[in-house]
Write a structure and sequence with these properties.
alpha+beta, 6 strands, about 30% strand, NADPH_dep_7-cyano-7-deazaG_red, cytoplasm, queuosine biosynthesis, GTP-CH-I_C/QueF
């Protein structure tokens, strides 16, 4: 976590790249309780590092917080910073998961990257860290595998 003040509650410019983005965390008001927090980004955009063409994904991030929550405005700005960033599907998905893991140190975290086809092949990427605590209900991510037009 940066020592800079939170971005929450003030105008904030869109970061030019993920390296320039600031992810913020805030204290979890229920650190003694296991529960799942979910963020869904159905219009995630990045660029192919080879062709520069846009790539699109539906990201679903689930985590069981410990002491920290990710502050949602900073997460939105961080994810939006990928729109001009060149990265393979696997790098973007796993990299986002690892950044959140490092920042939050959650009890459990998973990210599903459901990528739209490029070159006729959809690529779905999944990454997980930690063990899901016993008794925690985690709903299905709710994104169907790519089926084309039918």
């Amino acid at each position: 976590m940066s020592k800079r003040p939170l971005q929450l509650g003030k105008p904030t410019a869109l970061p030019a790249s993920p390296d320039q983005a600031q992810l913020d965390r805030v204290p979890n008001p229920h650190p003694d309780t296991n529960y799942v927090a979910r963020f869904t980004a159905p219009e995630f955009t990045t660029l192919c590092p080879i062709t520069g063409q846009p790539d699109f994904a539906h990201l679903v991030i689930d985590y069981v917080p410990g002491k920290w929550l990710v502050e949602s405005k900073s997460l939105k700005l961080y994810l939006a910073s990928f729109r001009n960033h060149g990265g393979f599907h696997e790098d973007c998905t796993v990299g986002i998961g690892k950044e959140l893991q490092k920042l939050l140190k959650p009890r459990w975290l998973r990210i599903g990257g459901y990528w739209y086809p490029r070159g006729g092949i959809p690529i779905d990427v999944f990454w997980q860290a930690g063990r899901l605590p016993a008794g925690v209900w985690v709903p299905d991510q709710g994104v169907a595998p790519y089926r084309g037009r039918g």
